[in-house]
Amino acid sequence: MITERLHPINESPVWARLHQHQRATRHVHMRELFAQDPQRFDRYSLQLDGLLLDYSKNRLTDRTLELLLELADAANLGQWLQWMRRGERINISEGRAVLHTALRLPADASLSLDGQDVVPQVHAELQRVCEFAERVRSGAWLGHDGQRIRRVVNIGIGGSDLGPLMVAEALKPYAMPGLAVDFVSNVDGQHLAQVLAQCDPTSTLFIVASKSFTTPETLLNAQAARRWLVAAAGEAAVARHFVAVSTNAEAVRAFGINTEHMFGFWDWVGGRYSVWSSIGLAVVLAIGAEQFRQFLAGGARMDRHFFETPFERNMPVLLGLIGIWYNTFYGAHTHAIMPYDHGLRRLPAHIQQLDMESNGKRVGRCGERLDFDTGPVIWGEEGANSQHAFFQLLHQGTRLVPCDFIVPMNSHYPLEGQHQVLVANCFAQSEALMRGKTEAEVLQELAGVSGDELDMLLPQKLFPGNQPSNTIALDQVTPYSLGMLLALYEHKVFVQGAIWGVNSFDQWGVEYGKQLAKRLQAEMAAGGGGSHDASTAGLLRHYLERKHG
Ligand code: F6P
């Protein structure tokens, strides 16, 4: 078992040196850094197969990067990368390997886990998924009364929803016309009810997507959908209209889905990393096998870059280190993600789960208490809408909020001039956040204003600037570039977790709320009881008094 590094990273000498360096450089304005170095963009940007990462608008100098790279060495990052790559059990608390990267390996690769090559298994399951999807898309797979499938409903939550939903939305330009794909996740009945209102029982295919097949939200929605189908078409219709994606064949069988219509994956694929597995079935149905393989190839391209490139030119490593610089050494609590692409609007939500469920931990991988902040709060919204919502705070608020801007250079929907406006807005925001507006500039704007009015207006029109951001530019959102982008974020999260010393692959924190909800449900059914704090007891009483029926 890997029990590497029992000494927390904050005890390493470079940690203290980074704190000193932050104190010494925190007043340096990025405007000055750009003025001093006309090559800053060239030196602080990287390109990989049409994906550009510009990290020049950060509060970084060569010395900062040198120290951050030393931090990576102090945390033994190189070793952790290789351990993940070759399938060591780095998810210590669950005794599991972490091999979502194996899902993206080409068929001629090999990777041995417990003496077995996992690559043939991965490709065999991928082949099953692709063949099934092609049967549905071509009309070879029909509904119970011979109708073609026109609508797919993926029922899942967390990683069994956010990844496929985000990818399916982003790749809509590649979707087959005439086959709608919906996602139902919330146990709130209105979610399923609203989707069912659009469905025809003769032409709808339900995918019950759950790694564990025990998640109550998913099972309740799946049972409700099943009842709806059976009421309209009878029990025999279930076999043609329900398939499952899971690692739990027994529970799938118990639910009443033939395991021939179940697509599997493995315990070494975490839920939030599972869109590359059979959990991507809804995506394959939408965009087809060929395009899904391009998505996998994009992920694999980023994997090779991550595993094989020296850290000073390694995109995920640099993004991870820059994030740590603000999070740990500047005390920035949040990180905003702004895709300037309507199709990518669910990316912030997906990265939120990826990052916060992975690195939202207060103890190290061996159970030791950590005395420093770990994972940031991830949030964000599509641009340009976000500019009209919360950018005021980014420009003139009191907090340091590092941002990622993501923007394609070309649109699939080239309405006259509009994409150029979108890109200009994206670049303008990072420029404004970086440079701010000086007193001299504001005074020029306010020429002719004087006295009390000038005193009142001048401070309000100042922009401090020095707000850091990364810009990730894709040539276009394609299955391949999206694969690269998503793998970039996965590895960034890995880098940060490895350096902070947390296990990025378990999620014990979500269990407690689930246990208490179960207890409350039982008490609600029994009409009360149980021992709670006064607030929870009062809320329970209020519910029981006010609920209809
Ligand atoms: O929220 C906890 C969690 O376990 C996530 O990690 C996971 O993605 C989600 O629930 C759904 O789990 P499952 O795929 O087993 O239904």
Notes on the protein architecture:
By secondary structure, this protein is α/β, with parallel strands linked by helices. It is 48% helix and 10% strand. The protein has 22 helices and 13 strands. The strands form 3 sheets. The chain has a 6-stranded mixed beta sheet, sandwiched between helices. Strands 6-5-7-8-9 form a 5-stranded parallel beta sheet, with helices on both faces. Strands 3-4 form a two-stranded antiparallel ribbon. A hairpin with a 2-residue loop joins strand 1 and strand 2. Helix 7 packs parallel to helix 12 and helix 13 runs parallel beside helix 20. The radius of gyration is 25 Å and the shape is globular. The N and C termini lie far apart (54 Å). The model has no long low-confidence stretch (mean pLDDT 97). The structure holds 6-O-phosphono-beta-D-fructofuranose. The site of 6-O-phosphono-beta-D-fructofuranose has 14 residues, from loops. 6-O-phosphono-beta-D-fructofuranose binds next to loops.
Give the structure's gist in a few sentences.
The protein is built from 22 helices and 13 strands.
Bound molecules: 6-O-phosphono-beta-D-fructofuranose
Q: What's the total helix number? A: 22
Query: How far do the termini sit from each other?
Result: 54 Å
Tell me the fraction of residues in β-strands, as a range.
5-15%
> What does the average pLDDT come to?
97
Shape: globular
- Uncertain stretches of 5 or more adjacent residues: none
Structural class by sheet pairing and helices: alpha/beta
Helix content: 40-55%
Number of strands: 13
Backbone CA Rg: 25 Å
Strand order of the main beta sheet, please? Answer: 1-2-13-12-10-11
Largest sheet: 6 strands, mixed
